[in-house]
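Our working data are protein records whose layout never changes between entries. The record below serves as our worked example for the rest of this section:
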Amino acid sequence: MTIDSEKVISGTYGTLYINIDGVDTELANVSKFTGECEGVYETFSNVNTMGEQRKLVGYKITGSMTLNRITYEIPKTIFAKWKQGQAPAIRLVGENNDPSADDRARVVFEGVTFDKLALVDFEAKKISQEEYNFEATDAEYR
């Protein structure tokens, strides 16, 4: 079987949007985005069998995004909420729209939370980037 190299999906055509408390922003400075879903299983044993069994009991949605730092707007906004004892409502929308590919993806991540914010960061002779790991309560292809 051969593959048409033009059909291989390129991340160059990816787009990422963030919505914090109802304000939509396209993150044109994104360099990498990943959203994943991991099955959560419980292991159990039955009589008359040596092997263990596994049952799906849930799933966990996680991901990460790397942005070329342009502003500190994301940590400023989220940190201000955290200082008030609040968690902002965050939604992420990741798209991959390679025009030569046969398939495209648009996934909406709801109930997004970040565990860590870089309030300030820099390194001599390096382009500053901001990295976020996240968890989400739901995701849907749309």
